[in-house]
Amino acid sequence: MLHACGYAGKTRDAAAPTGHRLIRSLRRGDTASPESSYRSEADMKCETSVSRRRLLQRLMLGVSLAPVAASALRTARAATPAPLLPVDAPEAKAVHYVENASDAREAKPGSNCANCGLYQGANGSARGPCSLFPGKDVKAAGWCSSWAPQL
Predict the structure, then answer these.
(1) I want to staple 21 with a disulfide (CB 3.0 to 4.6 A). Which of 17, 26, 97, 109 is the partner?
(2) Does residue 6 come out as left (phi exceeding 0), alpha (psi in the -120 to 50 range) or beta?
(3) Can you tell me the mean pLDDT for 90-106?
(4) Helices H, strands E: what count in the chain?
């Protein structure tokens, strides 16, 4: 006989209480036969496939929501500005970085971080990231010896 789950094996006796009916009958004091208190192999097969189905559904849901969660994390990280590069940092000293371009002797007039090809900040912003200093912001009015015109 074919079971409801598609398992072709023994099915339980329709008259024997199972599940919540068995619990109710035991609470009332009815005596249950040992055969009716155990789940049949078909019931366990059915429960296994149902729980496997639930696992796969939840897995698919998790996989489909992962990009959304990653995007939310990236947005949250982008909302917090990176720390400002200190002038006395070794990487800043290596390229003679100054926070005000007018303080640099080697700087050409009009050259600053805001109009450098390496500066990645938004137009008109006071500070922004530079590709020379990953994870740190530089002042838009700053200058360093690696200054290159924007193309």
Answers:
(1) 17
(2) left
(3) 92
(4) 4, 2
At 113 the pLDDT is 94
Secondary structure of 38-54 in the HEC alphabet? CCCHHHHHHHHHHHHHH
The mean predicted confidence, pLDDT, of the chain is 79
The domain of 39 spans: 19-79
**Contact of 139 with 126, CB cutoff 8 Å:** yes
> What is the percentage of the chain residues whose pLDDT exceeds 70?
65
Secondary structure of residue 71 in the 3-state scheme: helix
Quote the Cα angle for 26-32-37, to 5°: 90
Q: Per the domain annotation, does 97 fall within a domain?
A: yes
Determine the average pLDDT of the residues in 120-147: 92
Distance, in Å, from the CA atom of 43 to the CA atom of 39, rounded to the nearest integer, reads 6
* Domain-terminating residue out of 57, 79, 101: 79
Q: Alpha carbon of 136 to those of 33, 82, 109, 120: distances in Å?
A: 74, 5, 25, 11
Torsion sign over Cα 82, 104, 126, 109? negative
